[in-house]
Structures are given as C-alpha cells and as structure tokens.
UniProtKB/TrEMBL annotation:
Residues 69-252 form the IclR-ED domain. The keyword Iron-sulfur does not apply. GO terms for biological process: negative regulation of DNA-templated transcription. Keywords: DNA-binding, Transcription, Transcription regulation. One of its GO terms (molecular function) is DNA-binding transcription factor activity. Signal peptide: none annotated. InterPro entries: GAF-like_dom_sf (IPR029016), HTH_MetabolicPath_Reg (IPR050707), Tscrpt_reg_IclR_C (IPR014757), Tscrpt_reg_IclR_N (IPR005471), WH-like_DNA-bd_sf (IPR036388), WH_DNA-bd_sf (IPR036390). This is Transcriptional regulator, IclR family. It holds the Pfam family HTH_IclR. Residues 6-68 form the HTH iclR-type domain.
C-alpha cells in the first residue's frame, strides 16, 4: 500500500483500497500485517467503515469485504463522472462492426481504469473487465493517453510507473516508452504487442478534447493466435471514427480533472 496519508478520511480510504486489493474477504489479522497503521487505529477505521456500510463483516468467519453501499456509489460515479454512458452506443457499434473486443478507459492516478468492455462476435475470453486497474506504460489505452499529456504532467505520470516486465515485450524503461510515445503522437494510435498480457494484441486511440487533452481512450483487442497486428491496424480508421464521435458528443459534458497525482 502507498505511504499512509495524514488525514482520517485519507486513512479510511487507504483501508478501503487495501481490502479491495485482496479481491476476497480478509480477516483483521491479515489487514494488520498489510497495513502500516497501528492496530488500534486500523481497528477503529475498519469499524467506522462497517458502521457506514462501506465494509461488511461476515458474522461467521469475521472476515471483511466491501459493502453494498460502495456498489451504489460506484453506479452513481459511472453515471456522473465517467465517459461510459456517453461512449456506450459508440463502442457497441465498434464491437459489432469489427467483431473484436472493445475497451473504454480513463487515466486514474497514473494508471488505467477500464470503464467498459464490449465483446464482438469474434471476441475471446481473457481481456480486461470494467473496473480493472492496469499500468499505463504497457497497455494500448494507457500509451494512447500518455502520448497526449502536457509535458509537465507526462513527466509526473511517468515517474509513477513501475516499468515491471509482465511479458518479454513489455517496455522496460522510461526512455524506451518516451520513444514509443513520440511514434504514437505522430501516427495517432498506440499498439500493444502482448506487452501486458501474453497472447493479447491491441490497437488504441485517445479520445481528445477540443484542446487536445486526453479524456479517455478506446482499444480493439484480439488473441494473437486468431489475429495479427496488421489486421488489427486495418481497423484503425474505424477506431478513429469511434473516438471522434465520442469526443464530439462529450463536448457538453463536465469532464472531471484527470487524477494523475497520488492522494
């Protein structure tokens, strides 16, 4: 977990992040091992989260998991503060016309947050679902958005990347990534050659505001054993149409400021 925040609300959010990261019910003893907070502080925060409905405790096992109240908040956020409702008909159409898997994403604290996914007739399993967080430096949607960040913001966000190698083709350094971003800006789209998930290829384009700021990105993905990069790149004009349609429709939407800095 990140360095503990100073405020009570920040600490409670850190605890929520910690519980969510386990992707399963977690006992207090495990939370205590994972959290840098003192035991008494951690217990008090967990009980506050339980009392507020943000976290629930299994009465039999004593394990904690995320509460239904968070689901309601997530749905409200999806409707009010994401591209998903605006983009849905456009990515639906893109999936139908290409037969491929379509992802919609935005940048979140220097990482990629997948907002929606649509599967075409030729789609395979194994791609990223809505709600998943992924690195920006080795995903098509992430690189498409990074390529259009202002220089100072790009410097900051690149400093947040781990450059962990997930596959043999993962871009392993900031210098190599910067070279790739220059090419992306020049040609207007990014590619992912099995950089994050082995066996998955994709092309991605950023959704840009009138000022050229990345509001999100859309990708087309396919399995490497069923499609090659040349075929995927053949769909780039259709992908470009999709992101332009979303950008045009989104001009009246009050876009949230991209959260590129940690709390």
């Amino acid at each position: 977990m990140a360095t503990p925040s100073s405020g009570t609300v920040d600490k409670a959010l850190d605890v929520l992040d910690l519980i969510a990261a386990q992707e399963r019910p977690v006992r207090f003893g495990e939370l205590q091992r994972l959290s840098p907070l003192p035991k008494a502080t951690l217990y008090r925060l967990v009980q506050t989260l339980v009392n507020s409905g943000m976290v629930v405790q299994n009465p039999d096992s004593g394990a904690y998991s995320l509460g239904v109240r968070l689901v309601r908040l997530a749905h409200a956020a999806w409707r009010q503060a994401s591209l998903a409702p605006i983009a849905r008909p456009h990515i639906d159409a893109l999936a139908r016309s290409t037969g491929l898997t379509v992802h919609l994403a935005q940048m979140d604290y220097g990482h990629v947050l997948y907002l929606d996914r649509r599967d075409g007739s030729e789609a395979d399993a194994g791609f990223s679902d809505a709600g998943k967080i992924a690195p920006a430096y080795c995903t098509g949607v992430g690189k498409a958005m990074l390529a259009h960040l202002p220089p100072a913001e790009l410097d900051h966000v690149l400093g947040m990347q781990s450059f962990q190698r997930f596959t043999p083709t993962t871009l392993g350094s900031e210098a190599v990534l910067r070279q790739s971003l220059s090419k992306i800006r020049a040609r207007g789209y990014a590619v992912d050659r099995e950089e994050y998930q082995s066996g998955v290829l994709c092309v991605a384009s950023a959704i840009l505001s009138g000022e050229g700021r990345p509001l999100g990105a859309v990708s087309l993905s396919g399995s490497a054993d069923r499609i090659d990069m040349g075929t995927l790149e053949g769909w780039v004009p259709r992908l470009a149409e999709c992101v332009e349609e979303i950008a045009e429709e989104a001009t009246q939407w009050a876009f949230p400021v991209e959260r590129s800095a940690a709390r």
